[in-house]
C-alpha cells in the first residue's frame, strides 16, 4: 500500500520529513497543496487531490489540519481512491471555531513552538502569501465535514493542541463510525514534527492492524 501525505494551511510537504525515515521503507508520497487564490479556490482542492491520487489508487491518505478536512472530503466523495484514512488534528468539526478563535489558537501555536518549527511555520507562511492564508483560514472555519466515510480511519491528536483542541475529536468519531483515536502526550497541533517517533509508531500500528484485518 502507498501512503500519501497532505499538509495543512501555511505548511508544506517538508512538515512530514521527520516521519519518512521511521516508516520502515513503506512507499510514501508527499503532496504540496496548490496555492489558493482568485483562480483556485479552497473548494476546488478535493478535485485536484482526486486527480493526484487516481494513478496510484487506492492509497492510505494522511492529512493534517486543513489537509485533514480535504482528505476526509475526498474519502467521502471518492471512496474508490482511499484504502484507509489518517486524520491529524483535522479542521471541520461541526462546532468549528470562529475565524477570530482560530487566529488566537494559531498565535498560541506559534508562541509554544520550538525555534526550528517556528522558522518552518514562518517560512511556509511567507511562501503561501496573505490572500491564500485568509482564504484557507475562512475555509477551515466555515466548512464542516458532512460526508460519510467507510474506509478504516485513524485520528491522531496532540494532547496540548490549542488550535484544534482534542475535545473536537469526539465529533469526528461520531462522524466516522468505527474510527480510532490516538492522543499523543507532549504534542500540540503538529505531532508529526513535535513527536515524530510517537506519531510514526501510531501510524505503523494502524497500518499493521489494517494488514492483519485484511490478511496481508
Q: State the helicity in percent bands.
A: 40-55%
Provide the β-strand percentage band: 5-15%
Would you tell me which CATH topology applies?
Rossmann fold
**CATH class group:** Alpha Beta
Mean pLDDT across all residues, rounded? Answer: 83
User: Strand order within the widest sheet?
Assistant: 2-1-3-4-5-6
Using the 3D structure, state the CATH architecture: 3-Layer(aba) Sandwich
Q: Please, could you describe this protein's structure?
A:
There is one protein chain. With 216 residues, the protein is α/β, with parallel strands linked by helices. It has one domain: Alpha/Beta hydrolase fold, catalytic domain (Rossmann fold, 3-Layer(aba) Sandwich). Helices cover 42% and strands 15% of the residues. It is built from 8 helices and 6 strands. A 6-stranded parallel β-sheet has the order 2-1-3-4-5-6, sandwiched between helices. α2 (66-77) links the parallel β3 and β4. α1 crosses α2 (66-77). The longest helix is centred in the last third of the chain and has 18 residues, at 196-213. It is globular and about 35 Å long. 40% of the residues are buried. The model has no long low-confidence stretch (mean pLDDT 83).
Amino acid at each position: 500500500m502507498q501512503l500519501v501525505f497532505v499538509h495543512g494551511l501555511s505548511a508544506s510537504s517538508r512538515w512530514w520529513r521527520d516521519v519518512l525515515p521511521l516508516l520502515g521503507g513503506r512507499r510514501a508520497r508527499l503532496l504540496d497543496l496548490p496555492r489558493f487564490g482568485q483562480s483556485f479556490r479552497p473548494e476546488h482542492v478535493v478535485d485536484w487531490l482526486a486527480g493526484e491520487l487516481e494513478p496510484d489508487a487506492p492509497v492510505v491518505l494522511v492529512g493534517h489540519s486543513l489537509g485533514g478536512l480535504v482528505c476526509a472530503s475526498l474519502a467521502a466523495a471518492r471512496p474508490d481512491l482511499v484504502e484507509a484514512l489518517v486524520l491529524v488534528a483535522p479542521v471541520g468539526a461541526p462546532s468549528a471555531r470562529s475565524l477570530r478563535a482560530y487566529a488566537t489558537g494559531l498565535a498560541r501555536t506559534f508562541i509554544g513552538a520550538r525555534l526550528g518549527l517556528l522558522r518552518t511555520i514562518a517560512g511556509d507562511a511567507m511562501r503561501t502569501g496573505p490572500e491564500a492564508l485568509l482564504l484557507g483560514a475562512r475555509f477551515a472555519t466555515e466548512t464542516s465535514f458532512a460526508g460519510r466515510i467507510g474506509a478504516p480511519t485513524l485520528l491522531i491528536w496532540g494532547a496540548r493542541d490549542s488550535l484544534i483542541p482534542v475535545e473536537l475529536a469526539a465529533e469526528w468519531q461520531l462522524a466516522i463510525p468505527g474510527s480510532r483515536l490516538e492522543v499523543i502526550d507532549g504534542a500540540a497541533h503538529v505531532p508529526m514534527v513535535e513527536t515524530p517517533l510517537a506519531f510514526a509508531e501510531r501510524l505503523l500500528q494502524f497500518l499493521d492492524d489494517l494488514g492483519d484485518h485484511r490478511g496481508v
